[in-house]
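Thread: Modeling a multi-component assembly for a lab meeting

Hi all, long-time lurker, first post. My supervisor asked me to bring a structural picture of a complex we are working on to next week's group meeting, and I have zero experience with this. I have the sequence lines for every component (386 residues in total). Could someone generate the structure of the whole assembly? Inputs are pasted exactly as I received them:
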Amino acid sequence: MGLCGVSALKQPVPDDPGDVPLPRAIPMTVFSQLRPWRTWLQEWFLRFSRLSASAGIRELSFIHFVRFAIVRRLPDGRRLRHPILLFESNYNGSFENYIDTFSESVPKHMKLFWGTSYGFPGPLPCTPFKRYIDANEFKIDHYYRAYPDASVTMIVSALALDEPHERFYRHAEQLTPDEFRRAYDAFLTDHQGQL
Amino acid sequence: MKLLDTLRQLTRGAGNQRWGAHSLLILAPIGDGAREDLLGELARCEHDSPLAGLAEVHFARWVVIDQLKTGFADAPKRPSRLDRPYLLFSADYTPAPGDGTLLERLAEVGAAVWNHCDGFPPDGPARVDYLAAHRCDTTLYYAGYPDATPARVKTAVARRDALTRFVLDHRDERDAATLQRAYLKEAARWF
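Re: Modeling a multi-component assembly
Sure thing. I ran the full set together rather than chain by chain. Output:
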């Protein structure tokens, strides 16, 4: 399964300037119930799509971490009539923008992730899909963020910048002022996309 | 079906890790009559999260699952039902070399929450065994920055922010020697 034609970074559309700023990581927990005679298909798709799904999600650039888990039997041994699919995400932006962007950017992935769940209306149009997710979403009773103010883009940029920046710093002490000026300008030019 | 079972065994647990990032899922039954006290304990966590003591954890959550939802079109006619509420815990973490097992410390720092789960031992190594016994495997896991610990993330973001401020503050500095001195003085605090 290949990418769905996504070739540029996708960000949720920013909210209106007057809105209250959102924390940089928002949690989502959704349980859906799987049609039992297709669960094996869903499970193997998830297991073997790790590489392609990751590439598609990375293009969206607003997701910190996301997981899918199929639960056939509860850990304490109780069996479920229908297996359940857990979806959890830690993302930037609003719920509305998150679902809109996912549905429009990677609709094939959405069909493959949720296609065997009862009630899944398809990723497009977005409104029924948002209603579906909303109907199956659970309130988070406690959410911990190690770095509440950092978005995915900020983090990925900072990590990409860190080692080159330290190399520049260690070298900067050995330069004459004019050499430093040229090196400083070149460093900023080379890494302007990460600042 | 034997082939499927074999393949399932071979790939079991493989979704719990993506390069250096790990996914932890625990689903434990809530003790009889303990739901309201548990919600109270989780509300207290908002002011001082016990999970802040787990240095390798990026994000984590506790979710009380009272019952699976059926309020949508085309819901199953005979849905899966829980016979009691469950507590879901999940975490995204990147351990540093030398870090101990997350479950050991999670059993300790989260004891005030776990104590509301049915059968959670009062003390000792059995608590870790309880959490391990209530783990669920992750089937598909994505990590946006899989090899960076939370400490490295925080340090890198702080350095980037500091460099950005420095660049803006000194954008009109024409004298190369002054710029170099200022940069070296500031950057000595960053590295």
